[in-house]
Amino acid sequence: xxxxxxxxxxxxxxxxxxxxxxxxxxxxxxxxxxxxxxxxxxxxxxxxxxxxxxxxxxxxxxxxxxxxxxxxxxxxxxxxxxxxxxxxxxxxxxxxxxxxxxxxxxxxxxxxxxxxxxxxxxxxxxxxxxxxxxxxxxxxxxxxxxxxxxxxxxxxxxxxxxxxxxxxxxxxxxxxxxxxxxxxxxxxxxxxxxxxxxxxxxxxxxxxxxxxxxxxxxxxxxxxxxxxxxxxxxxxxxxxxxxxxxxxxxxxxxxxxxxxxxxxxxxxxxxxxxxxxxxxxxxxxxxxxxxxxxxxxxxxxxxxxxxxxxxxxxx
Length: 315
Ligand code: DHB
Fold this sequence. Notes:
21% strand, single chain, binds 3,4-dihydroxybenzoic acid, four-stranded antiparallel sheet, eight-stranded parallel sheet
């Protein structure tokens, strides 16, 4: 039996469905080069703004682990440190043998229009994930949680950006919100993929020994990732795969092993991103996840991802 992990995605063949979540190991060019050389199937940049940003004061990322050293989750409030959209646009011109996604998170509508207007004219920029869900900028709400603002944003950006577009969503928690959000996304034909989902916004992790928060920005509040978020991520992947059947879903949330990748795909994901676990384990995680996914497929007798993609059974 031979296993093929390839996926056809917007006219491209992506050899493995597994790659980094935006924010992890993807700010600098050397980090992006390392992703390009790893066994990840694609790579995505840090979310970019018009101007270079240093981000929030450190410490701004903290890993929660249990007594055995197993990762439970992470909290982050990085504050969009990035090299600016022009830098990642320049990076897109470099030769590479796997697809590059550029994550865009302008500080306001005007910034998104400026960035996407320029990207629209550049044939080297092929895959854009517009981030509607950054929880870590003081005073800025997550666009994805205000349906009126989100629709306005999508109306404006799709007037300017004519290529296939993806959007990174915050996690939703209510059936009516899934449906209302999906109805908005389905109005836009050029929205070709939805990435489900960003971190659980504004959690608080504390250390009882020191009686203190563990990250500095926003008095310790930050986005929660890792296994805490997996059931929520799977719910968002599955809900939107059913409600937006013409769009690809990219799964993101709580992926630590091959079984987690399998579950995201079973819920309907075309591709699967890894955040917190990549941060902890480093780039070799892509080899491990690939082997573990192949092992599960072998045991189950699946040869391709489409043998089980979206085929979640109900009781
Ligand atoms: C940051 C965090 C996010 O979850 C996101 O979507 C974008 C940026 C950050 O703090 O840098």
